[in-house]
């Protein structure tokens, strides 16, 4: 599976995407991550990718064509650029007001060979870019959490992480994907008792019984 990140800040993404489970998946070639910067597709000598917004208001807006051309370059490098319409690469556009990205959506995106993640900055990307991209590929629009971020890089990294861990062999065994088994947000490990400031903190007794039905019931309640 190949992730294409359209970003002005490759270095902000690659540190995270080279570490831990995602980094290992890249080394084992279960996934690949490639970058395109809109700065490579501007037609001015300053590498300027933003302009003042029409209608006024604070901040700057990323111009449409450099973003679209960066996506085009990624699509040309994709595994499935010439595939049938239902197997076209998918382009992800981030918006705080869009549909929330969740585990079900991660499972859907995990079926694609190529996922292009468009990371906006400043006040956003000229809306016409999204309309142009729909002529090139399937476009899905998501929000990742209800907060507004400085750029699309944080949502993009979260999405790569969530999708990668669902791919066969990435976590070693399918049971390691928490949402596919009975799991709790409260977890414990050794030692059984921790003494901190004259108070004892113990592991719940049910987790020490080995009674799987009772343990699953406890986890569901949690």
Secondary structure blueprint with pairings:
Layout: E1 2-6, H1 10-17, H2 20-27, E2 32-36, E3 50-51, E4 61-62, H3 64-76, E5 90-100, H4 103-109, E6 114-118, H5 128-133, E7 138-143, H6 153-164, E8 193-196, E9 199-202, H7 212-221
Parallel strand pairs: 1-2, 1-6, 5-6, 5-7
Antiparallel strand pairs: 3-4, 8-9
Helix pairs in contact: 1-6
Please give a handful of descriptors for the protein shown.
single chain, 222 residues, alpha/beta, Alpha/beta knot, five-stranded parallel sheet, 7 helices
Structure description:
- The protein has 222 residues and is an alpha/beta fold.
- It has two domains: 2-174, 3-Layer(aba) Sandwich (Alpha/beta knot); 182-221.
- 29% of the residues lie in helices and 20% in strands.
- A five-stranded parallel beta sheet has the order 2-1-6-5-7. Strands 3-4 form a two-stranded antiparallel sheet.
- Strand 5 (90-100), helix 4 and strand 6 form a beta-alpha-beta unit.
- It starts with a strand and ends with a helix.
- The relative contact order is 0.16.
- The model has no long low-confidence stretch (mean pLDDT 91).
Largest sheet: 5 strands, parallel
The H-level CATH homologous superfamily of the largest domain, spelled out, is: SPOUT methyltransferase, trefoil knot domain
Number of domains: 2
* CATH architectural arrangement of the largest domain: 3-Layer(aba) Sandwich
Query: Helices and strands, in N-to-C order?
Result: EHHEEEHEHEHEHEEH
CATH top level label of the largest domain: Alpha Beta
Percent in strands:
15-25%
Give the low-pLDDT segments.
Answer: none
Mean pLDDT: 91
Distance between the termini: 35 Å
In which range does the helix fraction lie?
Answer: 25-40%
Query: Would you give the CATH topology of the largest domain?
Result: Alpha/beta knot
């Amino acid at each position: 599976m190949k992730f294409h990140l359209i970003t002005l800040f490759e270095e902000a993404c690659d540190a995270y995407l080279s570490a831990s489970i995602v980094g290992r998946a890249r080394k084992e070639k279960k996934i690949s991550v490639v970058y395109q910067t809109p700065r490579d597709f501007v037609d001015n000598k300053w590498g300027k990718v933003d302009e003042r917004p029409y209608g006024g208001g604070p901040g700057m807006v990323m111009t449409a064509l450099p973003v679209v051309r960066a996506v085009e370059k990624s699509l040309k490098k994709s595994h499935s650029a010439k595939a049938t319409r239902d197997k076209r690469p998918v382009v992800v556009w981030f918006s705080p007001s869009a549909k929330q990205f969740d585990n079900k959506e991660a499972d859907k995106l995990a079926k694609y060979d190529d996922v292009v993640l468009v990371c906006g900055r400043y006040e956003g990307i000229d809306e016409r870019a999204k309309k142009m991209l729909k002529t090139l590929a399937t476009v899905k629009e998501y929000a990742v959490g209800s907060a507004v971020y400085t750029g699309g890089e944080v949502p993009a990294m979260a999405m790569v992480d969530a999708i990668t861990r669902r791919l066969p062999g990435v976590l070693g065994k399918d049971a390691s994907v928490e949402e596919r088994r009975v799991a709790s947000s409260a977890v414990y490990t050794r030692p059984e008792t921790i003494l901190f400031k004259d108070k004892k903190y113990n592991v719940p007794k049910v987790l020490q019984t080995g009674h799987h039905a009772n343990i699953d019931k406890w986890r569901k309640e949690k």
